[in-house]
Amino acid sequence: YNVSHHLSHREGSKAPQAEENEELSEAVMAILIGCLENLMEEKDVVSLTRRYMCLGQLLKAKRFGKNAIGLVRDLGLFDGVCEHREYYSDLDSLAKEVANLLDM
């Protein structure tokens, strides 16, 4: 979570002219895909919470959030991920927020 927070909020060298459609760095893509991989198989509530928090940070980032959302949609990485939230009521709001960011 801390790394995703840093990547989504850090001031780049072009901070005053920061673009909203900045390309995704390798670090951002690695965290994004890592959080989505095997999300349905994860059973630990703390790990799931952290994954959803990371996803939310990256998808809402002003600099590259739109590109992150596009990548997740294009690759179909979020298909059916919210199904497990029925088993973990604590995660319901986080799962819904991530799904809403992706318009699912």
Task: Describe the protein.
This protein has 104 residues and is mainly α. The chain is built from five helices and no strands. It has helices at 2-9, 26-36, 45-59, 65-75, 92-101. 53% of the residues lie in helices and 0% in strands. Helix 1 (2-9) packs parallel to helix 3, helix 2 packs across helix 3 and helix 3 (45-59) packs parallel to helix 5.
The computed structural class is: mainly alpha
Let me know the average pLDDT: 80
Count of strand segments: 0
Q: Main β-sheet: number of strands, strand sense, barrel status? A: none
Helix segment tally: 5
Could you state the order of secondary-structure elements as H and E? Answer: HHHHH
Gross morphology: globular
Portion in strands: under 5%
Concise description?
The protein has 104 residues and is mainly alpha-helical. The protein is built from five helices and no strands.
What is the element layout, followed by pairings?
Blueprint: H1 2-9, H2 26-36, H3 45-59, H4 65-75, H5 92-101
Helix pairs in contact: 1-3, 2-3, 3-5
Key features of this structure:
globular; 5 helices; mainly alpha; 104 residues
